[in-house]
Design a protein that fits this description.
The structure is a single chain. The chain is mainly α. The chain has one domain: Vanadium-containing Chloroperoxidase, domain 1 (Up-down Bundle). It is 70% helix and 0% strand. The protein contains 14 helices and no strands. It has helices at 2-10, 18-33, 39-44, 47-57, 61-67, 73-80, 88-112, 117-120, 142-157, 163-181, 183-186, 192-215, 228-248, 252-273. Helix 13 (228-248) packs antiparallel against helix 14.
Length: 275
């Protein structure tokens, strides 16, 4: 599996950045034409679309709240733990991409300082599921960045060979990703453009992570079994945090993630002991 993924990553070319960059430029041009480059106008032009999407998705609060957890770094890391033994190249790309996405998230949220919907709109007008978020960090969506960062790494890792299959795989992966990120609108945490921009930034972060892991060997130690105890400790800490979340929130996604994490921990301990 790891050899196939390395081969897939080696085929990627720099022109793949053209689409996401073009989409970002398109969004800026759209906002400019709508005279919506200020915070107040940015939120105002999305009010109706936000409420429409929120009301349609918010009727399934449990589903939305479970799916939106995929944007939590803990959940993404725990699910990707399945690949640590069989496809360490994914982890090499993921580690670089995570640092880049974290930087993008911190810088852009501070730069734009857009208030969240709960800080601008009447709470009785839309559905809030989970914690009420009302800070000035709506743009871009951090959950969307995390989802598409991991999503992009996996999408290109398992890209089929045939062109027709590639196209189908690409649109399927992007569709699933958008389904997940729009749960942020469904739970009342973000405006639509927040999650779209976050998705694009996440896609760019994932690509950068792949290109960095391909050119530089800074994370090559991931494939060295003598460092497995680091991951064993990390996974056990993540498992403890998940158990604590199950006690307080009791979401299905936490149980599924915990099962993946415990299985990964078992596999990595087994490989380490047999080295």
């Amino acid at each position: 599996m790891n050899t196939k993924i390395i081969t897939n990553y080696s085929k990627l070319r720099i022109f793949l950045f053209l689409l996401p960059l073009s989409l970002l430029v398109t969004i800026v041009v759209f906002l400019y034409e709508q005279n919506a480059l200020s915070i107040s106008s940015y939120t105002q032009i999305q009010k109706d679309s936000f409420i429409f999407i929120n009301h349609n998705l918010g009727v399934y609060p449990n589903l939305q709240f479970n799916l939106t957890q995929f944007g939590d770094c803990l959940i993404s890391l725990s699910l990707l733990s399945l690949f640590i033994v069989y496809a360490p190249k994914i982890w090499e790309a993921f580690l670089s991409a995570s640092l880049i996405s974290c930087l993008f998230t911190r810088v852009l949220k501070s730069l734009f300082a857009v208030p969240r919907p709960a800080a601008m709109l009447d709470h009785s007008k839309f559905i809030i599921t989970g914690e009420t978020l009302s800070g000035n960090n709506s743009l871009p969506s951090g959950h969307a960045i995390t989802i598409f960062t991991a999503h992009t790494i996996l999408m290109f890792a398992f890209m089929p060979k045939k062109l027709s299959h590639k196209i189908l795989w690409f649109f399927l992966a992007i569709s699933i990703g958008l389904l997940l990120v729009f749960t942020r609108v469904g739970v009342g945490a973000h405006y639509p453009i927040d999650v779209i921009v976050g998705s694009i930034i996440g896609y760019i972060s994932g690509l950068l992570g792949i290109f960095i892991s391909r050119k530089y060997k800074i994370w090559s130690w991931v494939n060295d079994k003598k460092y497995y105890p680091i991951f064993i400790v990390l996974f056990l800490i993540c498992a403890a945090i998940l158990i604590n979340r199950i006690i307080h929130e009791n979401l299905i996604i936490f149980y599924l993630t915990l099962i993946c994490l415990l299985f990964s921990t078992y596999k990595i301990i087994k490989v380490y002991v047999q080295k």
